[in-house]
Structures are given as C-alpha cells and as structure tokens.
Design goal:
Rossmann fold, globular
Length: 238
C-alpha cells in the first residue's frame, strides 16, 4: 500500500458503547499501525482517551479517531467526560472529520434503552447536516451460533427499516462479520468516495471550534442529549 502524498486525509470518528468493537475495527483495517491496540472484553473498556491512528489504504490516507465507549443512560457524569474528551480531540485535530461511524452490537438484539440513548448521542454529535456521512456498523456476528444466524439477520433487517434513521432517512449500515474480512475495507472505500475539504462539519466540531469560550460540553447539542435524563429527574450527577 503506497502512500499518496497528494491525497487529502480521510478522517473518521468512531463512536459507540464500551465493547462494541471500535478497537477491533481499527486492528482489522489499520495494518501494522493497529497491531498494538488493546481489545477489551465484555463491559471492560480498553480505551480511556481518544487516540488517532494514521495509515494508508488503496492510496488514500486515513486518520481514525478512536474514542472511549459511551455508557448507559444513568452514567451522566461519565458520558459528559467522554464527550469532553472527544471535543478536546476535535479541537486538536487539524482536519475536519470526513465521516462518523456508530458501532452497534447485533447481540444486543433490540435497539432500545441504552442502545437507543447512545445512538441519539451519536446523532447529536454529528448533526442533521452531517447525515450523509454517518454510518452504522453492526458487530459481534462471530459470537452467533450458525443455527441462530437467520434470527440475527432479521434483526439487522429491522435496523435498516426502523431505528437507524435521521430526519426520515436511513443511515447506511454495514454488517461486520469476521468471516467476510472484505466488508471492513468496504467501509473505508465508502468514505473514500466523499470529497474532502469544504463539506459541512460535524455538529460537535462546529460547536467547539466556533466558540472558543465554550468551557463545558453540557451546552453542546450532544451534551444536552446526555442531560435530558437529568433534567427529567431520571438520574442524577454524583
């Protein structure tokens, strides 16, 4: 894979709950750059800070921003801390985000509760103007027994027909099955086709770069999404 110096960098932001496969995705696509990445097990996170992985695929340069895993609806303080970490990374990164990927464990079965909450945070991070550059990938297909595969394929179909929407449009979905390694690179190729440069920025990127006096992510669209349950009295910040 030869580097193409003239090719603008494709910057991808990875978002999802703890243990949803973000680090595994990087390990698959980034070649030698991703070999030393730690992979979490179950609910135990291995990523506590944002980290950028740079590599070249098919003569296109990529920068992938790995982020800490989002927590459940009650973990308000933890989710705000994660948002702040992401905001700080977006401020520091010298290129606009090209696309954003949400990671959903197909083994979670129903897209409700924490899954829905985390996806709503993802949408708020991206913003409606960024919709065409949002992707969802489903993971953990290797944990499914062959006899149960048709059931989970039906779940994937349900996602395409319902919850994965934004402003009445369906978010592009890829099923990341380890038995088909090519699909991981199909995700990269999907984003490589987008023009870089003057596209509309990620919502959170626009908020933190456009307001240097912004000291708290609580006032961003994503921060307000996290705070909804606090304001409704469903949880408290300790």
């Amino acid at each position: 894979m030869a580097a193409n110096i003239a090719s603008p960098e494709v910057t991808l932001l990875l978002i999802g709950p703890t243990g949803s496969g973000k680090s595994s995705f990087i390990q698959k696509v980034a070649g030698p750059v991703g070999r030393d990445i730690n992979i979490g097990s179950g609910p135990n996170p291995c990523t506590f800070r944002c980290k950028v992985y740079k590599f070249t695929y098919n003569e296109t340069r990529f920068a992938i921003i790995d982020t800490p895993g989002l927590e459940d609806v009650a973990a308000t303080a933890a989710n705000l801390k994660i948002l702040q970490e992401i905001a700080n990374q977006l401020k520091a990164h010298d290129a606009n985000v090209t696309g954003a990927i949400y990671f959903h464990r197909i083994t979670d079965k129903r897209f409700t509760g924490t899954s829905r909450f985390n996806f709503d945070i993802f949408k708020a991070i991206c913003g409606e103007a960024f919709f065409p550059r949002m992707v969802c990938v489903t993971t953990m297909w290797n944990n499914i027994k062959p006899r149960r595969m048709p059931d989970f394929e039906s779940l994937s179909k349900e996602l395409r027909q319902g919850p994965m929407d934004f402003a009445g449009k369906s978010v592009k979905i890829f099923d990341l099955n380890g038995s088909d390694p090519d699909v991981y690179f199909e995700v990269l190729s999907y984003f490589a086709q987008f023009p870089r440069g003057n596209h509309r920025p990620l919502q959170l990127e626009k908020e933190v770069r456009g307001n240097p006096r912004l000291k708290s992510v609580k006032k961003t669209m994503a921060g307000r999404e996290v705070m909804k349950n606090v304001n409704a009295g469903f949880c408290v910040i300790l």
